[in-house]
Amino acid sequence: MRLFTDMMGRTMNVPDNPQRIISVVPSQTELLFDLGLNDEVVGITKFCIHPEDWFRNKTRIGGTKKLRVEEIIKLNPDLIIANKEENEQEQIEELAKHFPVWVSDIHNIPQALQMIQVVGQLTNRETKANDMVEEMVQGFNTLTKAAKQKRVAYMIWYNPWMSVGTDTFISNMIQTMGWKNVLQDKSRYPEVTMDELKAYEPELVLLSSEPFPFKEQHIEEVKQALPNAEVMLVDGEMFSWYGSRMLKAVNYLDGLIQRLG
Questions:
Q1: CA 182 to CA 204: how far, in whole Å?
Q2: Beta bridge partners of 2
Q3: C-alpha angle 84-88-91 in degrees, rounded to nearest 5
Q4: Which pLDDT band holds residue 37 (cuts at 50, 70, 90)?
Q5: Could you give the dihedral angle defined by the CA atoms of residues 84, 129, 169 and 138, in that order, rounded to the nearest 10 degrees?
Q6: What is the dihedral of CA 250, 252, 258, 260, to 10 degrees?
Q7: Nearest 5 degrees, angle CA 127-CA 129-CA 134?
């Protein structure tokens, strides 16, 4: 057994070579796949859509907020990988009574890179994880920032409208691009009306593909409320998935910068 401390400051004993891993966070599930842990991962959530083969064939143990705890107990994992924001504290605490549960807490790119390295250590894929982090660091270091600090509002939910505050991974990604999150005075995921958003004078409104699946009709609704703003749909995974998806995110973000300035 090895002693680990998670990003919540909790310590736990983890087997030297975990063989029954459950991931309850979509972006971290994809990371486990890219680390080559096909045989070791025995359970995922219904929202773990990448890779498709795992989504179709791995045992699903509920949603990120509604885990089927009894089913997880039956699977008898020797490691569960979770996240403070995406999972419910009460369920994580219950699972931690039975199994080692390593919880990430990620608000920015450096913390995401740290998570990837530790997951590599947890699963004995340290070299592969470190190589992945190195590639990500090189990618973000070569990202050409926007020439103008465009004022951006990033929307994640509809009815009520919800955006992202300053202390979020998404906001850090926007800042990394050289843009400015107009809701920097807010924290986490604030509700905001179109009238309130208008007062922030965003030049660009990004409608994310997740968690709410914004469509073309929502673009027109925003344009009616904010006629001076450019409005577009974006791939939410590229802004919010803090695992191996970040390898693809660099090119995606670069494309947006080249297109929008």
A1: 10
A2: 14
A3: 115
A4: very high
A5: 170
A6: -120
A7: 95
Residue-wise pLDDT for 140-199, tens only, equals 999 999 999 999 999 999 999 999 999 999 999 999 999 999 999 999 999 999 999 999
Sorted by where each starts, the structural domains of the chain and their CATH numbers stand as 2-108 (3.40.50.1980), 151-260 (3.40.50.1980)
Distance of CA 240 to the CA centre of its chain: 4
Residue 211: both structure tokens together: 């968690």
* φ, ψ dihedrals at 255, nearest 5°: -65, -40
For residue 79, the cross-strand partners are 21
* Residue 32, both tokens: 């486990």
Check residue 191 and give its pLDDT. Answer: 98
User: Residue 139 has which token pair?
Assistant: 């990618």
Distances (CA, A) of 192 to 38, 96, 107, 164, 199: 41, 36, 21, 10, 11
Percent of all residues in the chain with a pLDDT value above 90, rounded to a whole number: 99
C-beta neighbour count of 224 within 10 angstroms: 9
* Predicted TM-score (pTM) above 0.70: yes
* pLDDT tens, position by position, 106-136: 999 999 999 999 999 999 999 999 999 999 9
Q: CB within 8 A of 167, min separation 6: which ones? A: 107, 187, 188
Cα–Cα dist 112/168, whole Å? 12
CA distance 38 to 99: 20
Contact, 97 vs 2, CB < 8 A? no
pLDDT for res 22: 98
